[in-house]
Amino acid sequence: MLSTTETADARGPQAPDAGSAPLSPTDRTRLRRGRHKQRADRAELYALLDEGLFCHLGVVVDGAPRVLPTAYGRVGDTLYLHGSTGARSLDTGGEVCVAVTLVDGLVLARSAFHHSVNHRSAVVYGRPRVVDDEDERTAGLRALTEQVAPGRWDAVRVPTRKEMAATRVLALSLAEASVKVRTGPPVDDEEDLALDVWAGVVPVRSVFGEPEPDPLLREGIGVPRHIAEHRSP
Q1: Is the pLDDT reported for residue 104 higher than 60?
Q2: Parallel, antiparallel, or unpaired for β 78-84 and 167-173?
Q3: How is the chain split into domains, by residue range?
Q4: Cβ(230)–Cβ(208) under 8 Å?
Q5: Looking at the record, which segments are called Disordered (predicted)?
Q6: Contact 90/187 with Cβ under 8 angstroms?
Q7: What is the C-alpha to C-alpha distance for residues 151 and 153, in angstroms, rounded to an integer?
Q8: pTM of the entire structure?
Q9: 42, 23 in Cβ contact below 8 A?
Q10: How much of the chain is helix, strand and coil, in % rounded to 5?
Q11: Which of 7, 53, 96, 177 has the fewest CB atoms within 10 Å, measured from its CB?
């Protein structure tokens, strides 16, 4: 995945973080089961979001739930999302839920019941606001672009006025969020430990492959440094 050690400049203008303020559980974010998996460190939330590439946005449209996979970007304690100005799902004015999940391993137990997945997940609740300020809109779109490939914003053509007019940017506060982390080996029942069944963890990681040039790319344009440096080995 993308490095979580990028400098603030790589993601564009940074708003002040909530710092070391812990994540305060609410009725919606408090885990009812597996409470030991819940994390209160806001830095873990930021690191998880910065490592992810895609989120799932849950909204209610005409009384029916919808889950939309979409890109995002973080600036300080704000998550930025975008979509077309004609997208009805962004016109609800109500609350939304955003989820980001990173899979770290397959947990294979001796019994089917105790199989699990090592993962890190973040869930954010809130009422997003439409960003009208042009400077903030630009910062939000930069964050979205940098989330995909740090350094990309300064290497490409910036959006035109027409493109900006057709793009809606939403800002969602990270004030109400939760982080859940599952690590370690399977937890089998004691009587199952004597079974002749392999058990353990199969690590999972995302890697970047060799960049594939656009068939219409002009000759002589090589892979830029900001892309080559962020490919996984």
Answers
A1: yes
A2: antiparallel
A3: 8-228
A4: yes
A5: 1-36
A6: no
A7: 6
A8: 0.83
A9: yes
A10: 25, 30, 45
A11: 7
